[in-house]
Amino acid sequence: MARVISVESERFPIAGTFTISRGSKTEAEVIVCTISDGGHRGRGECVPYKRYGETMEGVREAIDAMREMIAGGISRTELLDAMPAGAARNAIDCALWDLEAKTSGKPVAASICKAPLRALETAYTLSLGEPEAMAAQARSNASRPLLKVKIGGDNDIARIRAVAEAAPDSRIILDANEGWTDENIVENLAFAAAQRIALIEQPLPAGRDGILGHIAHPVPICADESVHEAKNLEALVGLYDAVNIKLDKSGGLTEALVLRDRARELGFGIMVGCMVGTSLAMAPAVLLAQDADFVDLDGPLLLARDREPGLVYEGSLVSPPDRALWG
Known about the structure:
The chain is of the alpha/beta class and 327 residues long. The protein has 11 helices and 14 strands. Helix content is 31%, strand content 22%.
């Protein structure tokens, strides 16, 4: 029987407001792609991201345009050539992985994970705000072992100090979302090192980060917006120490696995991250992240409600997905 695809747009309220250097939002807008073969169905969730020129409408149209090829049985490998990296391809790719697992009875983990699955320690994200407000967020989450702190403004040294003092026992990742400049990066890096920050994510705008090859890295620096697919990696050698792999950037789990393995070959550390989405979007990333150095898969923790069944979070530990959810 030919495969049939359906596409649904969904919205999930965020608990409060999620703010980064590029703006704020109060809900997560996601798209779910479902592919069925008559007896089984697979699902994949993606989050269109404006930073990369994506919209809900555009991503839906891109998925719809693949109906004929999906009905004809396109493989995940063929999908890499048929579509560009991005949210639309991610939704289809993850739906195909899920469908294959349910059709064959073989879990995705059995195909991609070398060691027994384990619960992972995920970062918990603090939104960008004034130093006092960010300190309050940090105090409320000071029991979490790993915090990811959104920064990227003119007052970042005060923000870093406020959070570090409010959560002295937590390891901290700073995510500048391309908000630093050539003029302030050396000072900011030095201050971050003095505060024992563990990692700094994408301090400079993608494509305008050449200075990273000429300054000291007292704190490891991780590429986010600068890396989408494995083909981007060679240009980042000497600039970054680690890369953040997100399925919505790589265009699915298939390319993300290639990206991860090539990054390891080139000596990069690995972070597996996410957009703000539900457990369905996080599930394949939890499998990808089984051997990651940093895990940032807290999307459902930022929502007022998640889909059911969802991932199980105990504090900052996220368990592998049940197959009823995905894979």
